[in-house]
Amino acid sequence: MKGRKWLLSIVTIMCCTALLGLSPAMGANAKFDFDKFSDMSDFDPNNPVIPTGDTIKIAIVASFSGPAAAVGDIYFASIQWAAHDINKRGGIMVDGKKKLVQIIKADHQGKIPVAKKVCERMVLQEKVDVLWGTNSSSIMKVINQVAKKYKVIAQCAAALSDELYDAQNFTRYSFMSSFSTNQIGRAAAYYYGQVRKQEKKFYILCQDYVFGYSMAKGFKAGLKEYYPEAELLGEDYHKLFLTDFAPYLTKIKASGAEVIYTGDWIPDAANLLKQTRQMGITLPFAHIFLDEPYMLTEVGVEGTKGLIQVSQYGAANPLFKNEDQIKYYNAWHSLWKNKWTEPYNRWTYKHPLGNIGSYTQQTYWLLSVIERAASTDAEKIIKVWEGDSYEMASGKVISMRACDHKAVQPLHIFEFVEPEKQKESFNIEPYSYFDGCSNVGPIHTVPADKIMPWMDPKLDRCK
């Protein structure tokens, strides 16, 4: 029997690594190189140094106007940081020539028809090599369609719905380097069922579009897998940019739930948390985007204590494990503190961590792939990225599953605690993330093999 189990384990490992396109003994193919990290003292997202001419062109397709315009600003600072660093190193050798990286803003305004037009303009007029997106799974689907039509690379770094890479929507020109809704939901369920083992009654409240339903689906699947004794007392979906959450919160309060699970992003995330506490509801949220510091400080230390965040840019405590990581952190933080102006001097940008850290490092991965492909030709990029792996500045290793272009990665669960208890995570002065609110303290790792990305059995490439 032991021999059979041993053989089964070996076969399982071989099958998984074959799907990834990796050798079982292989480590990361590339990593963030601290030794090459540039002097970033001249970086200013309000006054970016953006080259023109014969460049590697990346279009950030995002909401730079409208209710979610702040999201576009976050993307730009993150991606331009990586581009600025690479440009100061001299650029990347592609197609026999050293080229700098040019970042172009492409405002989709949160509207699908606008997104299609702006993507086509980016490809046909601006001649971009990569479409980078975005804060909407519905709009990311449009980006992927345009990328497929014109045979350019799309990087899905911020849209999270698994449906984007199912048999119907998959395109070999698009790569999902972000975490996905199924991974997020199962990671949260794994934490509550296998690690914390306390709360058992949950309520889902998400936004009423494909991403919200995908978030809920992932969590429900995770509860069945890792916490079958848990109870789901209800689920509701609200329209985007809602200002009054009272009807939903009244139902949640009456349900007897012990935890609210949500995928809401700003501005909905801020309004949801603030109104919950204003109504006297002290339930913890399991979330991914309830981390905007102004929102957290408005709610206060007690109101934010106990929040549980599933993060794609984390590592086991402590945060800083060597001088290289401290130097990298300080390069960003000192600019935020001493140089940047609105909106980039806001608390949102204080740390190159969390979502900002993820967007930045995902972009470094893209640029590393282009460098190793030595070309902006989509076919050559695809050949390198399928089955590739990359070690981020945090030390986390992320891999690209070859058959359906989804990222395989561990995720981390952040428990929010009072500032005086945050030292176990933020282990350099001032030993806390922000004053006036709770933030990351204990961190739990959910191994990658516990939350492998959902794979559509109908996708022929994966059979």
Class by SSE composition: alpha/beta
Cα distance spanning the termini: 29 Å
Number of helices: 12
Rg to the nearest angstrom? 21 Å
Which percent range describes the beta-strand content?
15-25%
- On the 0 to 100 scale, the average pLDDT is 94
Structurally, the number of domains stands at 2
Can you tell me the CATH superfamily of the largest domain? Answer: Response regulator
Q: Write out the strand line-up for the largest beta sheet, numbering strands in chain order.
A: 10-9-11-12-13-17-18
Query: Looking at the chains present, what oligomeric state does this protein adopt?
Result: single chain
CATH class term of the largest domain: Alpha Beta
Strand and helix order = HEEHEEEHEHEEHEHEHEHEHEHHHEEEEE
**Major pleated sheet:** 7 strands, mixed
User: Percentage of helical residues?
Assistant: 25-40%
CATH topology annotation of the largest domain: Rossmann fold
How many strands in all?
18
CATH architecture of the largest domain: 3-Layer(aba) Sandwich
Unreliable runs: 1-26
- Global outline: globular
Write a compact overview of the structure shown.
The protein has helices at 2-20, 69-88, 112-124, 137-150, 181-196, 210-226, 246-255, 268-278, 293-304, 323-338, 354-373, 378-385; strands spanning 30-31, 56-62, 92-94, 97-99, 101-107, 130-133, 153-156, 174-176, 201-207, 231-238, 259-261, 285-287, 308-311, 389-391, 397-400, 407-408, 411-417, 439-446.
How would you explain this protein's 3D organization?
The chain is α/β, with parallel strands linked by helices and 463 residues long. The protein folds into 2 domains: 28-179 and 321-408, Rossmann fold (3-Layer(aba) Sandwich); 182-311 and 412-446, Response regulator (Rossmann fold). It is 38% helix and 18% strand. It contains 12 helices and 18 strands. Helix 5 runs parallel beside helix 6 (210-226) and helix 8 (268-278) packs parallel to helix 9 (293-304). The radius of gyration is 21 Å and the shape is globular. 49% of the residues are buried. Mean pLDDT is 94; it is low at 1-26.
